[in-house]
User: What shape does this take?
Amino acid sequence: MPHDRIDARYGWTGGGRWSLAIAVGIASVVTVGAAAARQTSAPAAAREAPAAAAADQAPPPAPANGFVGDDTCTTCHEPEGKSLPATLHGKARNVRTPAARTGQSCETCHGPGQAHVDTGDKTKIKRFTAMAPKDVNATCLTCHSKGSHAQWNGGMHDARNLSCTTCHSVHNPKSERAQLKTVTAVQTCETCHKQEAMKVKKSGHMPLREGKMDCTTCHTPHGSTNVRMLKVGNTINETCSSCHAEKRGPFLHDHAAGRESCASCHDPHGSNNDRMLVAKDPMLCQRCHVSSRHPATIYDGSQIAAASNRVVGRSCVNCHSQIHGSNHPAGEKFLR
Ligand code: HEC
Ligand code: HEC
Ligand code: HEC
Ligand code: HEC
Ligand code: HEC
Ligand code: HEC
Ligand code: HEC
Ligand code: HEC
Ligand code: HEC
Ligand code: HEC
Assistant: This one.
């Protein structure tokens, strides 16, 4: 099974296999790269791909016109011939699809197939499950070069040798949208990012496990101009305030901690504290406020306990209720 191969290369089925997966990944980039050069199986790339990608590969001495047409391919590969029309790639009325190249939809991606058909040799056709990630990506990016895809090159996932087909399947998609290999986007991310995916299951969380949001509500897996592949804005705060607009400010008195990042107090993925806080009150505040005019730190233990309104209920925010910032003229201590 070719999927097994790609799975092994990316540690697809397990997060704990990273070092192995990366080592194997590097090895396979080298060997597959060399194999690709030997096979000279890149005529389609030469036809389709940008000059840069073509220059990466060995010059293809294959005939300029080695195309056989879809009907020939599907005589032997019937399942793929059936699966393609079921997806957006098979909708010929969209002139940008492979299917719109009449009779040549298969070879738009797989490259001219004459040599493969003549010999039955599977190394004489582009096999995405056996190609180096960068060669897979170059094929897909010839068409998918807009929006977030324009940020793919150099993004974290590109840098870590993921490919489009790590997450997407052209012939056997499982998801309702975007042709993922898993039913939901969270499941796709979860295969590698277990920690973040598990945090969503904690008591404090945004409605991800309820299905109202998913990882791609905030992140784009393709790459972005924001930090941490966040979809919106240029900072973490701009992402948060795209929904929680009332926390955006500017406030007459803003809280330096919040100006820096919402993530100084909240874990965006979830936590077992109230309101997804990274620590419980009063510890939350005491990580930064080690002194104040009233007892505030763990070292004032007994006094805090005595003045119990600092530890019960909402603790410090019993009084400092405008913790995100205040527009009251006398709100500099976030009390009103
Ligand atoms: C005469 C029958 C025949 C025709 C026509 C044919 N193929 Fe194949 N194809 C094969 C055989 C046989 C294999 C090898 C299967 C194996 O070794 O597991 C193969 C393998 C492949 C593979 C690799 C599958 C894998 O296991 O990784 C791809 C991709 C492929 N063909 C695409 C095409 C495309 C695209 C066309 C049309 C241009 C085409 N084939 C036309 C018989 C054919
Ligand atoms: C949009 C690009 C694209 C088009 C168009 C396309 N393929 Fe594929 N093909 C792929 C990719 C990527 C894979 C790797 C497996 C996957 O993603 O489903 C693949 C895998 C295959 C395989 C190997 C199946 C396996 O088990 O790994 C065969 C055979 C194949 N394609 C034949 C065809 C035929 C026949 C057509 C035309 C009807 C076609 N492909 C059209 C991209 C494409
Ligand atoms: C880490 C997993 C992952 C990788 C790698 C990945 N994608 Fe995606 N892609 C997704 C998810 C999840 C969605 C659906 C959520 C969304 O729309 O952002 C998606 C959406 C898409 C869409 C439909 C929405 C849109 O943005 O147009 C296309 C087309 C697409 N991806 C193509 C690609 C291509 C081409 C590559 C390789 C350059 C790629 N993807 C790499 C996970 C991935
Ligand atoms: C010849 C151009 C072309 C090539 C090559 C191509 N695609 Fe597409 N793809 C399209 C078009 C056109 C659509 C329809 C949606 C659109 O207009 O963006 C589409 C749709 C998709 C979608 C579904 C988007 C959705 O909203 O459901 C995914 C995922 C995708 N492509 C991934 C890939 C991957 C992975 C590859 C490389 C193996 C690839 N494509 C190669 C043109 C192409
Ligand atoms: C095949 C494994 C794999 C899959 C699947 C995957 N990622 Fe990643 N992702 C990585 C690797 C490797 C890194 C690099 C950082 C690291 O080692 O943790 C990374 C980094 C990230 C980062 C941090 C980027 C930065 O700039 O620090 C984010 C955010 C991210 N991924 C989101 C996602 C989302 C969302 C999905 C699902 C759509 C996803 N990933 C699916 C492997 C994967
Ligand atoms: C509400 C928005 C939001 C959602 C939903 C979200 N994230 Fe994040 N994610 C963030 C922010 C913000 C950061 C940066 C946190 C920081 O740097 O302190 C981040 C960071 C990450 C990182 C990098 C962590 C690191 O330490 O480098 C990964 C990986 C990641 N997210 C994966 C996921 C996955 C997987 C999901 C789905 C289960 C997901 N995220 C859902 C906002 C979100
Ligand atoms: C796409 C919109 C969206 C984005 C972006 C977003 N949130 Fe949320 N957030 C929600 C929704 C929806 C809820 C649930 C509201 C409810 O239950 O009333 C929520 C709830 C919360 C809660 C309260 C959780 C609880 O236990 O009651 C906190 C705290 C929070 N978000 C912080 C953040 C932070 C920090 C960011 C940036 C990393 C962020 N949000 C980004 C939509 C978003
Ligand atoms: C100094 C720590 C701190 C920072 C920084 C911070 N928050 Fe909060 N946030 C809290 C605390 C404490 C609560 C609980 C308040 C309560 O119980 O009344 C809370 C509650 C929330 C809630 C849920 C209750 C409500 O008021 O709607 C949301 C949503 C929220 N914060 C979003 C954000 C966003 C967005 C940012 C960044 C702009 C941010 N927070 C920055 C400490 C912080
Ligand atoms: C990440 C560090 C950090 C955390 C966590 C934090 N703060 Fe702050 N806070 C600051 C900084 C920095 C200032 C600005 C101090 C200054 O201007 O001298 C500030 C200012 C304040 C002020 C106004 C102080 C003054 O002198 O005007 C109050 C009141 C305050 N914080 C209360 C809290 C409370 C209550 C919490 C917990 C819910 C909290 N802070 C959590 C860093 C933090
Ligand atoms: C019973 C109400 C109340 C509680 C509970 C409370 N504070 Fe305050 N806090 C105040 C008042 C009132 C001021 C303003 C004092 C002034 O302006 O003279 C203040 C001032 C501050 C200041 C500004 C620096 C200073 O010394 O004036 C910080 C920082 C602060 N509090 C942190 C905290 C932290 C951390 C907690 C939780 C451990 C907390 N507060 C709990 C009422 C409270």
Q: What stands out?
A: The longest strand covers residues 253-254. The first helix runs from residue 2 to 10.
